[in-house]
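Final report, closing paragraph on structural work. Over the funding period we assembled a curated collection of sequence-structure pairs, and we close with a single example.
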Amino acid sequence: MTLSRVLENAETALASRSSRRSFLGRLGRSLLIAAAGPLASVALSPDRAQAFHICGHIFTTGSCPHPFHPRSRIDRYGYPVHPDHGYPVDDRGDIFVSPTQSRRHICHEIVPERYRFTAPTLLQGTWSRCCNHRIRRIVDCCSRSRIRINGDFSVTGYCRGGRRVFCITYQDTKIRC
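Its predicted structure, as stored:
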């Protein structure tokens, strides 16, 4: 069997087990590893990079401050909710039952309070992943800062108006996937 035939069979087998996007990602990663050697292999390992801090999201930008950090789940209004059970929580992580408790917006209030150079911040970009058989919406907290919560350079992501992703939060929906 010729080398081209072996490569063609391997590509066909890989493509049949995955989507086009994941196939292209694996192919690109393989080419990079072949070019850069074992160092790139270690650097691209998701476990090594502490990759899966939110189900369905590979670590690029860290989670926004949250009582249950790094699981920064929010409701549709941007307030913190319990990451597993979805009930409202206050700024300390206790069940929110009284207006005397402090419960602030994660992106609009807590982020600019802790990271003053980010103000003003907005929840802007969203993208979805399937997590535990439900759609999970990952929501970008955007600012004009060129540095993100990780300490490295920020990315534009899904932010608009010249803003960049500072940190991320997420919303779990009831939509099955």
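Residues 39-51 have pLDDT under 50 and may be disordered. The first strand starts at residue 122 and ends at 131. We thank the funder for supporting this effort.
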